[in-house]
Amino acid sequence: MQQRFETSPGDRNRTDEHALPVYQDGHDLHPIIRHAALATPSDWVDAIVVSSSEDGTIELSPMDNARTVRCWHHADLSNMVPTGTPVALHNIYPVLAVGDEILSIRAL
Predict the structure, then answer these.
(1) If you average pLDDT over residues 63-68, what whole number do you get?
(2) Whole-angstrom Cα distance, residue 101 to residue 108?
(3) Does residue 49 contact residue 82 with C-beta atoms inside 8 Å?
(4) Which residue in 95, 88, 107 sits closest to 6, CA to CA?
(5) What's the rounded Cα separation, in Å, for the pair 82 and 66?
(6) What pTM was computed for the model?
(7) What is the 3-state secondary structure (H, E, C) of the chain?
(8) d(CA 41, CA 90)
(9) CB 86 within 8 Å of CB 46
Protein backbone atom coordinates (compact mmCIF):
# COMPACT_ATOMS: atom_id res chain seq x y z
CA MET A 1 0.00 0.00 0.00
CA GLN A 2 1.49 3.31 -1.05
CA GLN A 3 1.15 6.17 1.45
CA ARG A 4 0.39 9.63 0.11
CA PHE A 5 1.71 12.76 1.78
CA GLU A 6 0.49 16.32 1.40
CA THR A 7 3.14 18.77 0.37
CA SER A 8 3.60 22.48 0.69
CA PRO A 9 4.25 24.76 -2.33
CA GLY A 10 8.04 24.53 -2.03
CA ASP A 11 7.96 20.72 -1.91
CA ARG A 12 6.28 20.36 -5.29
CA ASN A 13 9.67 20.88 -6.93
CA ARG A 14 11.13 17.70 -5.45
CA THR A 15 12.55 15.47 -8.15
CA ASP A 16 12.77 12.30 -6.08
CA GLU A 17 9.26 10.85 -6.00
CA HIS A 18 10.32 8.54 -3.16
CA ALA A 19 11.60 11.35 -0.92
CA LEU A 20 10.20 11.11 2.57
CA PRO A 21 8.54 14.17 4.07
CA VAL A 22 10.43 16.20 6.65
CA TYR A 23 8.07 16.79 9.56
CA GLN A 24 10.00 19.57 11.28
CA ASP A 25 8.59 23.03 11.89
CA GLY A 26 8.88 25.05 8.71
CA HIS A 27 8.99 22.02 6.42
CA ASP A 28 6.28 19.48 5.58
CA LEU A 29 3.02 19.78 7.48
CA HIS A 30 2.20 16.63 9.42
CA PRO A 31 -1.41 15.52 8.82
CA ILE A 32 -2.08 15.27 12.57
CA ILE A 33 -0.93 18.88 13.13
CA ARG A 34 -3.09 20.00 10.21
CA HIS A 35 -6.11 18.21 11.67
CA ALA A 36 -5.49 19.55 15.18
CA ALA A 37 -5.15 23.13 13.91
CA LEU A 38 -8.35 22.87 11.89
CA ALA A 39 -10.15 21.36 14.89
CA THR A 40 -9.37 24.42 17.04
CA PRO A 41 -10.85 27.35 15.10
CA SER A 42 -10.88 29.71 18.09
CA ASP A 43 -7.07 29.59 18.27
CA TRP A 44 -6.50 31.28 14.90
CA VAL A 45 -5.49 34.95 14.84
CA ASP A 46 -5.80 37.13 11.76
CA ALA A 47 -2.57 38.83 10.72
CA ILE A 48 -1.11 40.93 7.92
CA VAL A 49 2.20 40.17 6.25
CA VAL A 50 4.65 42.99 7.03
CA SER A 51 7.46 41.50 4.94
CA SER A 52 8.55 38.26 3.32
CA SER A 53 11.90 37.34 1.86
CA GLU A 54 13.38 34.77 -0.47
CA ASP A 55 15.11 32.99 2.44
CA GLY A 56 11.65 31.99 3.79
CA THR A 57 11.48 34.58 6.57
CA ILE A 58 8.04 36.12 7.05
CA GLU A 59 7.19 38.98 9.41
CA LEU A 60 3.57 39.23 10.54
CA SER A 61 1.50 41.78 12.41
CA PRO A 62 -1.29 39.92 14.25
CA MET A 63 -4.56 41.81 14.71
CA ASP A 64 -4.91 40.79 18.37
CA ASN A 65 -2.11 43.07 19.64
CA ALA A 66 0.91 45.17 18.64
CA ARG A 67 3.54 42.42 18.72
CA THR A 68 5.33 41.45 15.54
CA VAL A 69 5.81 37.77 14.80
CA ARG A 70 8.72 36.46 12.75
CA CYS A 71 8.55 32.97 11.30
CA TRP A 72 10.27 30.84 8.68
CA HIS A 73 9.29 28.33 6.01
CA HIS A 74 11.87 26.33 4.08
CA ALA A 75 10.54 27.51 0.71
CA ASP A 76 10.56 31.00 -0.77
CA LEU A 77 7.00 32.21 -0.17
CA SER A 78 7.64 35.85 -1.09
CA ASN A 79 5.38 35.57 -4.16
CA MET A 80 2.66 33.76 -2.21
CA VAL A 81 2.65 36.17 0.77
CA PRO A 82 3.77 39.62 -0.38
CA THR A 83 3.54 42.58 1.98
CA GLY A 84 -0.07 43.33 2.90
CA THR A 85 -1.37 39.78 2.43
CA PRO A 86 -3.99 38.76 5.01
CA VAL A 87 -3.14 35.45 6.69
CA ALA A 88 -4.10 33.53 9.84
CA LEU A 89 -1.63 32.40 12.48
CA HIS A 90 -2.42 29.58 14.89
CA ASN A 91 -1.75 30.29 18.59
CA ILE A 92 -1.02 26.66 19.54
CA TYR A 93 0.37 24.91 16.48
CA PRO A 94 3.18 26.19 14.23
CA VAL A 95 1.01 26.76 11.19
CA LEU A 96 0.10 29.66 8.94
CA ALA A 97 -3.00 29.77 6.75
CA VAL A 98 -2.78 31.63 3.45
CA GLY A 99 -6.09 31.38 1.66
CA ASP A 100 -6.85 27.65 1.46
CA GLU A 101 -3.21 26.63 2.04
CA ILE A 102 -2.00 25.67 5.52
CA LEU A 103 1.76 25.78 5.93
CA SER A 104 4.12 24.56 8.61
CA ILE A 105 6.25 27.38 10.02
CA ARG A 106 9.05 27.80 12.55
CA ALA A 107 8.91 30.70 15.00
CA LEU A 108 12.00 32.89 14.99
Answers:
(1) 82
(2) 21
(3) yes
(4) 95
(5) 20
(6) 0.77
(7) CCCCCCCCHHHHHCCCCCCCCCCCCCCCCCHHHHHHHHCCHHHEEEEEEEEECCCCEEEEEECCCCCCEEEECCCCCCCCCCCCCEEEEECCCCEEEECCEEEECEEC
(8) 9
(9) yes
Q: Which amino acid is at 46?
A: D
pLDDT tens, 3-37? 333 444 444 445 556 666 788 888 889 999 999 99
Burial label, 7 (beta-carbon count in 10 A; 0-12, 13-18, 19+): middle
